Amino acid sequence: MRISPLKPNCGLLASGIPEFCLQPLTLFKNIDENEVSKIWKQRNEQNPLLFDGKIFCFYAFYSKDNRIETFGNFINYRYVVAKKTVPALLPDFYTVGVCGASVLIENNIPNFCFAERKNTFIDSQRTVLIPSGCIDE
Length: 137
Prior knowledge:
The chain is α+β, with helices and mostly antiparallel strands. The chain has helices spanning 33-46, 77-85; strands at 17-22, 54-64, 67-76, 94-95, 97-99, 103-106, 109-112, 114-116, 127-129, 132-134. It has 2 helices and 10 strands; from the N terminus they run βαββαβββββββ.
């Protein structure tokens, strides 16, 4: 089995039926936890509404016959914040975002529903379709 490396900003990576394969995150063995904690504390002071819940992140995928095996695990949000703040601090991994589309019909005219993201570290003040977000544990 060949696992595809990920490339940032490459558009559609794969399409098909997702299968999530939870793998121990051995990538995180040699992390400077003190630096992660320091970054988290700074960002949390800037935005006290940040929550250190666990979200699904992946580091590789394998695509074959309309199936996508996604290799990753649930990690604390503080690691995502640390990676975005100091990219070299952690190995490469990617959050899994989900998005739907809510349509409100008024006078036989369909209207897509959007919201502005607030109180988030990633993509704060971006406009997104409703609903959207990450996969949490």
